[in-house]
Structures are given as structure tokens and as C-alpha cells.
Amino acid sequence: MKIAVSELIVRFMERLGIAHIFGMPGAHILPVYDCLYDSKIKSVLVKHEQGAAFMASGHARVSGGIAACITTAGPGATNLVTGIASAYADRQPILIITGETPTYIFGKGGLQESSGEGGAIDQTALFKGITRYHRVVERTDYLAQVLNQAARILLSANAGPVLLSFPYNIQKELVEDSLLDGINFAPARLSKSPAPLDESAELARMIAAARHPVIVAGYGALRSGAQQVVAELSDRLGLPVATSLKGKGVIGEDNELSLGCLGVTSNGRAYRYIVDHADLVIFLGAGFNERTSHMWDAKLLAGKQVAQVDNDPAQLEKVFRADLAIHADIRAVLDDLLAHVDETGAARKTLGWCAGYAGPAVAGAGEQQFPLIEHFFARLAANFATDMQIFDDNIIFAQHFLKVAPGNRYYPNSGISSLGHAIPAAIGGRFACSVPTFAILGDGGFQMCCMELMTAVNYAIPVNAVVLNNASMGLIRKNQQQLYGGRFIDCDFVNPDYQMLARAFGINYWRVASAADVDALFARADLADSINLIEIMLDKHVFPGYLSGR
Fold first, then answer.
1. I need a labelling partner for 368 at 20 to 30 A (CA). Which of 3, 128, 150, 480 fits?
2. CA atoms within 13 A on the CB side of 12
3. Which residues touch 73 (CB under 8 Å, ≥6 apart)?
4. Does residue 117 sit within a domain?
5. Cross-strand bridge partners of residue 439
């Protein structure tokens, strides 16, 4: 049966399992929107296309599936760039559908044209570096190949954003609906790379031979669903576990074998333990990036054996030499490893002195400097011991103070660390999972995305926006204090009256300026099923102690 390409696009998204699509209509994409009218896919109108990209990213991170966003041609597409770049850095499977002017006016200066012809914006060039696949579909005779390639990438083990742009006239052309039957919608399965030795057995031998092995678990361990097996391995063999920022929650951070977060803005416990005691460091899906590595501090790995397991070959030995590098699914490797442990009857490491280990402090957020934030995060962890999700743009305070339980999920804005991410990402995440949801961000970032709170209002999506108010771009001010002699420029600003703003939005407002205010917030506020704007007051003259060097 013949159907319009616009309807085929919607059916394609349905077959991919897409439940929500975030975006904003425009004339050049209305044929697709019209077909969404009768679809099970729920369309969500955002306030800015960047918010659509961030919502899709949040939805993908929570659901573990493919998310989607949709815009019109020209500015609709260009407004997506930052959000899509962030998703690309985080390897999020996001399908982006954009409209385009009709092909018969390419190069003539059509309104919002982005064909690249006749001096028009070249959308292909614009998105080339931030998508895994991008195609302007100018004909229908190769549409099946385009959709098959898009599905293959979106369903791959190491996915990323895919952008398909459809000119207005192409959306209206007719094609056979059977075209979708030839597309492979099965998720790709990752298999271990062939190797001349049993890598899991070799890793078991390395652990048995080490006196003080330690695990550094990252986001890859979460993506592979390895939390339980990491905890079991840690408990069975007495292995301390540190996590990267994105890996927070792989193991409960109140576990006696948890070293917390390894990172330049953390409390330093994991850093000191690895430097002072470890002789084997096992990386499980954790990149040794600037933040995790304490800016590639050589002391972390000096004189130690290193093992690395990752399902992304590009991460293996990217910044360090590994004694054992395994390209495979992390959970599968650990399952094999536990079997070897059972077979050999390996003894549990006697690391009782690890419990409560603090070690000399590393400059970070500093408990004495930020007692209000410390108290807030302590109450947050205590009140929501399970079934909570946090989207965090600030990162520094959560890395230092927040203890993430296994039943909770923490989503830092790590990708390209763009401001304006937390609120739309949290809304997208809340669409995917109905649990208490928090967006944590500074007042500077809040003013980039605050209007998306009205998206939450429009769709009755409960979310808590936690705004850290120091009336400044805090990290810029810190750097100007530490490195530029206190010559502050373009870092301070005047905030709106957040109570009045919340009233205008029709949402709840809470001001937190003391520990008593924190206690009142958790005693009185409905943080699970309502929309709240929570303002936490900070002193702009107090800075985290770490140095970024720039």
C-alpha cells in the first residue's frame, strides 16, 4: 500500500520504540506533525529547540532506548546544535528529524533554506561533526537504505545522534509501506573481540596476585547493567570501588568498600587511596578524562598494573598504557571473572582498614566552606534512598557531597559541559520514568533554560529545579580570583526575584538560606509529584579550592 513519506517516518519511529518526540513545529515539517496526530508517539512542544535536544538526551539516558526530537528547517535545526553536540559526546541514541525547503527551490533563496546551495546554510556541513549519520533525503529511491543505516547506528552498542532532513515535497511523496519490512530493527549485540588468551582468566590472575587491587567503575559499567555484579565482585574479593563522575551509583556510596567518586572536585578519598595503597587499578567502562584523572596526575597510575575493560575500542588505552585491555561487554567479562573466582576459590583481600579510610584531603568543594550544600545533599540522599533521578549541571558539589544509592540514578552534564542542560534533560527523563526528579544548576545556567519549566507546567510533569544562587558565573569568578588577581569581569549579574518568577510560572517556590530551611523543605514540600523551584543561597566570595589551571 502506498503511503506518504511523512507517515513512513512516523511508522519508522514507532518501530524503533520511540515513545516521545520533543520539538517545535514549523511550516516545513508540518506533514510529519500531521501524521503524529494519529500516532502513539507523544509529541512534546518545547520553548526552544535546544531544550528539545536536551530533553531527548535526558529521555535516552533514563530509558536506555532511542529518543527523538523534531524541528523545522533553518533556525529550527540550527538551534539544536549544542544539545546534539552534547548527545554526541555522550553517545546518546537520538533520532533528529528536521524539515527542509522543497527541493525545487534549492539554491533560489527559499525561506529558512539550509540546503547549502546558492549560498544557503549548509545543514550537512553544520551537523557533520556532531552526528554519527546525517542525510538530507532528496529522493525516495534510496530511502530504504537511509533508514536502514539510521536504524543500524541508533541500535548499535556505541550509538550516537542520527539526523534525517526531509524536504517538504519529499515528505508528501508516496512510497510502499512495505519498505519498512526490509529494515533491521534488532538491537546489535556486542561480542568479545577474539584474543589468543582467556582475558577474564588473566584478569582473575592479576587480581589474585595483587595485594591491594582497586576498581574504577564508570558510565560504561552502568550502560552494561553491571551494577550488581560489580557489587558482588567487590564484596566477594574485598575490592574497594571508586567511580567516575558519570559512574556514581555503580556501587552504593554508603557501602564500606566504596571510595566514592574519583575526580578533581571530589573529597579526595579515592585519589588518596589509589595513590597510597593500590598496586592494581581495574578500569571498568571509565575514561581517564581530565576530571576523573585529576588532570592526568601521574601519581595515580605510577608503579601500578592497569587493567581496562570497555565495550568501546576507542576508549582502550586512549590516555594510558594498560597491562591488560579487554574489548568486550563489561557485565559479560565480570560474569566470567566471578566464575573463575569460584573455580579457583580465590581468597578475599584483607582490607578491613579500607573502611572509613579518608587519607589527606585533596582540595575540592570543602565541607567547611559549603555547609548548606552539604546538608542539602545529605537530606536528599536520606529522604530518597531509592527511586530518584538527578540531572546535574553544577557537578562540583554533588561529586563532593552526594552519596548515590544503587536504587538512584545520577546524570551529570558531562558531555560538553554546556549550561542550560539540567532542567530540559530532567523533564525528558521524567517523561521516561515516573520517579522524583531533580535538576541541579547554577543561577547562570538557569537563566539559559528556565522557560522550559513552562513545558513541565504545560504537560504536568513534576520536576524540582534546584538553583544555586551566588549571583555570578561561579566557576569563572573562581578562576578570575585564583589566576587573574581578582580582576572580575562579566561574571557577576543581578538575578530576578525567583519567588515572583515561580508565581508567574504557577509553581511552588522554596528559599533555602539555612540548615533549618533545608529541613523545612524536606518536611513540607511535595518533591515527588509537584513542580518546585528551590533557591539555595550561596556566598559568591567563597570558592571551591581546586585549581583548573585556566
1. 480
2. 31
3. 26, 28, 29, 98, 99, 100, 101, 112, 113, 114, 123, 165
4. yes
5. 391, 465
Q: Is 454 found in the same domain as 337? A: no
**Grid cell digits, residue 155:** 541500535
545 or 422: whose pLDDT is higher? 422
C-alpha cell read off for 475:
566557576
- 178 and 203 assigned to the same domain: no
Same domain membership, residue 469 and residue 338: no
End of a domain among 182, 214, 233?
182
Q: Which residue in the block uniquely carries the three cell numbers 544555586?
A: 468
Query: Looking at residue 179, what DSSP letter applies?
Result: G
Neighbours of 175 (CB within 10 A): 18
- What are the cell numbers at 183? 529494515
Residue 355 or residue 137, greater confidence: 137
C-alpha cell recorded at residue 89: 559526546
Place of cell 556532531: 130
Domain CATH code at residue 90: 3.40.50.970
Q: Which domain holds residue 440?
A: 371-537
What is the 3 state secondary structure string of 327-379?
ECCHHHHHHHHHHHHHHHCCCCCCCHHHCCCCCCCCCCCCCCCCHHHHHHHHH
Residue type (1 letter), 530: S
> What CATH number is given to the structural domain containing 274?
3.40.50.1220
Nearest Cα residue to 429 out of 454, 456, 403: 456
224-241 tens-digit pLDDT: 889 999 999 999 999 999
Unique residue bearing C-alpha cell 522524583? 436
Which amino acid appears at position 341 of this protein? V
To which H or E segment does residue 174 belong? strand 174-176
Nearest to 254 by CA among 372, 145, 343, 382: 382
- Calculate ∠ Cα 431-98-174, nearest 5°: 110
Question: In this structure, what C-alpha cell is assigned to residue 335?
Answer: 560474569
Average pLDDT over residues 31-47: 98
- Residue bearing cell 515572583: 500
Dihedral angle computed from the Cα positions of residues 252, 61, 421 and 477, in that order, rounded to the nearest 10 degrees: 30
Same domain, 216 and 338: yes
Residue 447 CA to residue 32 CA, distance in Å, equals 32
Q: Are residues 248 and 349 in the same domain?
A: yes
Whole-angstrom Cα distance, residue 140 to residue 5? 8
Residue 282 covered by a domain: yes
229, part of any domain:
yes
Predicted confidence at residue 361, as pLDDT, reads 46
pTM for the structure as a whole: 0.93
More confident position, 205 or 19 = 19
416 falls within a domain: yes
Together in a domain, 260 and 145: no
The grid coordinates listed for 484 are 587573574
360 pLDDT higher than 50: no
Same domain? 280 vs 379: no
Say yes or no: 521 and 390 in one domain: yes
Number of folded domains in the chain?
3
